Amino acid sequence: MMNWKLAVAVLVLAIFITGVLVVPGSAQDSIISDYPELKPLVDFVGEEELSVMDLVGCKAAEKAMEELGFSKGDPNILALTDAGYIANIGKYSSERALNGVMMTAGVSRGKGNLVNVHRAYNKPLWFAFFDKETGDCVYLEVNKSYLKPWLDKEAAGTVNLSEFMGVGADALFSKISRENIDPDKLITEEGAKAWHHNFDEKTFGGNEFSILTISAVWSKGINNEFLKSAELHNHICPGLTSGYFIAEYLREHYPLEKGEKWIVWAVPPWCKDDALQQIFDATVGKRCMAVMYIPDSTSEKLPPEYRNIAGIYVKIGKTGEAKAIVLGWDWNKACSDCGFTRKDFKDFSSYKWWWTRLRADVVLMEHKPEEYISVLMVKDLGNQGSVKAMNARWMAVGANPLVELGIMPAPGATATPVSTPAEVTPSIPGLCVIAAIAIAGVVVYAARRRKKI
Ligand SMILES: [Zn+2]
Q: Tell me: the pLDDT tens digits for 135-159?
């Protein structure tokens, strides 16, 4: 018969041995034992949650760090990617790649050196890393057909992440390219000419304009509002800059009181309106933006000072009291300050289309909104009831806010339009429409009565 003391000793020994064997066993299960550099990422997302897409971001950052020779947390580095916003790989979304980029390269939205560039869901997934010290930039585009089977395996629960970590960058990325994009060189005409072949060759997968312009303005110092606008718009152009300047101008000269907000009538729309949607939260869906084009035939009828019209900005309060501010934007002055002509913008057959935009992006940052913005009209619109009612009245199909505001004559009218910036007395544009409907109603009613008789 076994002594009970011996039995306990054997049991204790057994537990001890099992413990010793089990502990290293579970450590071997962790991907960190094979890839210790993954520890910050694993700590951040949790071992159970670690996914192929987390590792895609990590591998993009690792390759860029090797190529550019930077270490984690280097403040000279800007990372740009469309991961999660919203480039997909088939049915798989890509936002988790941001975790890998952040935790490997030490960049983040909070630090202002991770730019999430907006792209449509069916666009390629890409990453770019720019070093503002050297001007060098590395671009990596994911090989969709290579990555998709890995994501399929993950969805089926059969993926081996350690095996995925062994994948070479050349297999995972269909394009890895490196170019110098030093903005100080590229804003010169000679520098732009020399770089232009990269646009033809799509060195950055067709994302050259996005990467060049955002990196350039970022390297000169960009604030968060403008950076968020650039994310939505997916590039920076002087059109976007004009929207950022208009936002700054309205905020400075017409500050919002409690309960007030901006309704943007984009008449006509251009890149600026993406900045206004972002900064004012003036989105189309929330009815805070309405868009109307000005065809050339109409533009010709505008008084000269209104040919620079940028838009109508309506400040509306909780009770429906509204005021319209019509602003102009001086493209001729902007172009002349940047050292080129307005028609250079439209030269898409050479380097000029992108050089002018990039140059203006950088040059305009040293100027003030007041240098280009003019107040064409300030008009009290009285009580408009609600935003929906106001937009339905002024920006409805068939309406013409330029006529209603007195900026241009109504078709067939000979009255001289208002052409000087001024406080104009309130008018009720809907009144004419209501009167017309009422008259039509009476006529129809009378006609029916006559038929009956
Ligand atoms: Zn633009």
A: 999 999 999 999 999 999 999 999 9
- Dist. CA 235 → ligand 1 center (Å): 6
User: Distance from the CA of 52 to the center of ligand 1, in angstroms?
Assistant: 34
Distance from residue 271's CA to the centre of ligand 1 (Å): 5
Ligand 1 mean position to 354 CA, how many Å? 11
3-state secondary structure the chain: CCCHHHHHHHHHHHHHHHHHHHHHHHHHHCHHHHCHHHHHHHHHHCCCCCCHHHHHHHHHHHHHHHHHCCCCCCCCEEEEECECCCECECCECCCCHHHHHHHHHCCCCCCCCEEECCCCCCCCCEEEEEECCCCEEEEEEECHHHHHHHHHHHHHCCCCHHHHHCCCHHHHEEEEEEEECCHHHHCCHHHHHHHCHHHHCCCCCCCHHHHHHHHHHHHHCCCHHHHHHHHHHCCCCHHHHHHHHHHHHHHHHCCCCCCCEEEEEECCCCCHHHHHHHHHCCCCCCCCEEECCCCHHHHCCCCHHHHHEEEEEEEECCCCEEEEEEEEECHHHHHHHHCCCHHHHHCCCCCHHHHHHHHHHHHHCCCCHHHCEEEEEEEEEEECCCHHHHHHHHCCCCCCHHHHCCCCCCCCCCCCCCCCCCEECCCCHHHHHHHHHHHHHHHHHHHHHHHHC
CA of residue 238 to ligand 1 center, whole Å: 7
Distance from residue 320's CA to the centre of ligand 1 (Å): 33
240 C-alpha to ligand 1 centroid (Å)? 6
Report, at the CATH architecture level, how domain 32-180 is classified: 2-Layer Sandwich (3.30)
pLDDT at 407: 95
Q: 270 CA to middle of ligand 1, Å?
A: 8
Residue 239 Cα to ligand 1 midpoint, Å, equals 5
**How many Å lie between the centroid of ligand 1 and the Cα of residue 275?**
10
Q: State the distance from the centre of ligand 1 to the C-alpha of 210, rounded, in angstroms.
A: 10
How would residue 29 be classed by pLDDT, with cut points 50, 70 and 90? Answer: confident
pLDDT at 9 over 90: no
For residue 401, report the distance from its CA to the centre of ligand 1, in Å: 25
Domain layout of the chain by residue ranges: 32-180, 238-330+372-430
Ligand 1 centroid to 112 CA: how many Å?
21
Distance 198 CA to ligand 1 centre (A): 20
Instruction: Give residue 5's pLDDT.
Output: 67
Report the range of poorest mean pLDDT among 38-47, 51-60, 139-148, 443-452: 443-452
pLDDT at residue 413 in the model: 73
